[in-house]
Structure to design on (556 residues):
């Protein structure tokens, strides 16, 4: 009887391996016993939720810039959705998640989604089609470069932006993604825990944003003559879309419709709520009144910070992470930025960079195997070593993102100038880069 | 002919327009403006970044009138717009050289309506 069971298990494994390595072919039946319809449904819906965050980000950022530049922000987000969606299926996914080379990058074996079909990939997500996992990850690859544009809003030429984004996705995002989430990635092998992208998405984008802001220089008239947000209601709409989509971002990263997903959902909402309230209180205390802009910024910071931790922590740590995110990001976006004088226009580093660092380190403190057996215990549960492991991820990502982006900016700038001319900046990007106006004054 | 420009508080607009109509002054152009007199505004704050100057929202009325109607216009605007607080606004009266009705080509006092 036991031999029969072993034989059956071996056959099942062989069948799965064969199915997974066949080229994309719709006539290959999925490994029916393994695919869970609940898991698949949830992951596909989550992919949609994460995709929704890109237009959400577009309106969040769009409402914060001047009227004359609103279309440039929206356009940058839309074009990234187009460009990276294609890059991902053509070769990005393979570089990020494909067969490992040296712990640093994936091979191009899965280029064109070769071998990525309806059958599950047992390493990444054994109960859903491989293509479902791939398309879920695609939305992360799309929104991460979009986060960066907050740093150079209102002053980058469109063509240069497109080239930079494509190179950044391929040479910075795909490698870091591989290190932390790819099979064989060196940070994953070290035991780094990043549930939904504290390092891969937020630290990566945040430090790249800082490099970009420093390379491009300040906007004309910064800091005294910079206009306030031209449409805060848009920014709130965008923040709401982001919060909603974040449930897919974090809870979807459980890759299953189960208790871990539910826990991540709870942690996500709780951290966002705690952070939003915290920033409102900080504003009230230090700026006289609670501001709407501050509150939504805080919420986003909290959501970003809980991203790496969502599936590993319980609800009280989620509150702590939210509050910590608001405190540190409040300092970063206001005091540090003012003191150091760089123009991170929409606080991409201040919110996502700092929030990602806070969250990734918080995993080292609050992670609990009781919440997620596939995770680890952190400092509070008797394993201080995890803090050091997380620090390795933070350090590696920060350095690679920052210097990698600087390097890319130098290269792209040599091919086609990154920054718009003075005159163009004054007229505005909508008219000069796209020959369009966001709003008609006179019909 | 005179050209009357009035800067008033936005919430007084309806009252002023009603009184102008009562005094038989119907033609008016209204626009949203921002500005300041001696009234200090409310300093705005965006992510801890404090705005430098502060301008306040006002409404501007522009009315072209024949000399006989100047006094009724001033009375209507004053009665409707005055609240007694700082920020009530101002009325400016300019000499108007010419006025032409586009539809018919009428000029001068007839065109003002």
């Amino acid at each position: 009887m036991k031999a029969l069971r072993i034989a059956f298990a071996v056959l099942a494994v062989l069948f799965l391996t064969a199915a997974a390595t066949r080229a994309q072919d719709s006539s290959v039946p999925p490994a029916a016993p393994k695919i869970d319809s609940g898991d698949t449904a949830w992951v596909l819906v989550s992919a949609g939720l994460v995709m929704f965050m890109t237009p959400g980000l577009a309106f969040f950022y769009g409402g914060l810039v001047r009227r004359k530049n609103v279309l440039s922000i929206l356009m940058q987000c839309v074009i990234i959705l187009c460009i990276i969606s294609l890059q991902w299926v053509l070769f990005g996914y393979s570089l990020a998640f494909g067969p490992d080379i040296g712990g640093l990058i994936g091979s191009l074996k899965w280029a064109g989604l070769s071998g990525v079909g309806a059958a599950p990939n047992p390493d990444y997500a054994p109960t859903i089609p491989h293509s479902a996992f791939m398309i879920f990850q695609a939305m992360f690859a799309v929104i991460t470069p979009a986060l960066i544009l907050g740093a150079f809003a209102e002053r980058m030429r469109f063509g240069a932006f497109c080239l930079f984004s494509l190179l950044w996705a391929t040479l910075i995002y795909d490698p870091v993604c591989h290190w932390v989430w790819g099979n064989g990635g060196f940070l994953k092998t070290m035991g780094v825990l990043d549930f939904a992208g504290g390092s891969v998405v937020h630290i990566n984008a945040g430090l790249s944003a800082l490099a970009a802001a420093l390379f491009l220089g300040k906007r004309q008239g910064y800091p005294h003559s910079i206009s306030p947000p031209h449409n805060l209601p848009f920014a709130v709409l965008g923040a709401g879309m982001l919060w909603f989509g974040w449930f897919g971002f974090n809870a979807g990263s459980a890759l299953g419709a189960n208790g871990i997903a539910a826990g991540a959902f709870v942690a996500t909402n709780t951290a966002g709520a705690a952070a939003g309230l915290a920033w409102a209180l900080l504003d009230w205390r230090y700026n006289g009144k609670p501001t709407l802009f501050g509150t939504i910024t805080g919420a986003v910071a909290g959501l970003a910070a809980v991203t790496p931790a969502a599936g590993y922590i319980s609800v009280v740590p989620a509150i702590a992470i939210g509050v910590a995110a608001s405190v540190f990001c409040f300092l970063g976006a206001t005091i540090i930025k003012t003191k150091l004088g760089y123009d991170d226009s929409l606080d991409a580093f201040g919110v996502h960079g700092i929030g990602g660092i806070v969250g990734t380190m918080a995993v080292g403190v609050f992670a609990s195997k009781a919440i997620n057996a596939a995770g680890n215990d952190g400092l509070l549960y008797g394993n201080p070593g995890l803090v050091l492991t997380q620090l390795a991820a933070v350090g590696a990502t920060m350095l690679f993102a920052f210097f990698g982006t600087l390097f890319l900016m130098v290269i792209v700038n040599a091919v086609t100038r990154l920054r718009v001319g003075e005159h163009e900046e004054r007229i505005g990007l909508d008219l000069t880069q796209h020959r369009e106006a966001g709003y008609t004054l006179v019909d | 002919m005179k050209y009357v420009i009035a800067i008033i508080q936005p919430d007084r607009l309806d009252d002023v327009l009603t009184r102008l109509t009562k005094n038989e002054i119907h033609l008016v152009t209204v626009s949203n403006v921002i500005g300041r007199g001696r009234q200090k505004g409310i300093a705005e704050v965006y992510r801890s970044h404090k705005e430098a100057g502060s301008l306040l929202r006002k409404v501007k009325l522009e009315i072209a009138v024949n000399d006989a109607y100047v006094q009724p216009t001033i009375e209507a605007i004053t009665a409707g717009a005055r609240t007694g607080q700082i920020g009530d606004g101002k009325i400016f009266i300019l000499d108007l050289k010419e006025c032409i009705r586009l539809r018919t080509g009428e000029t001068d006092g007839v065109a003002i309506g």
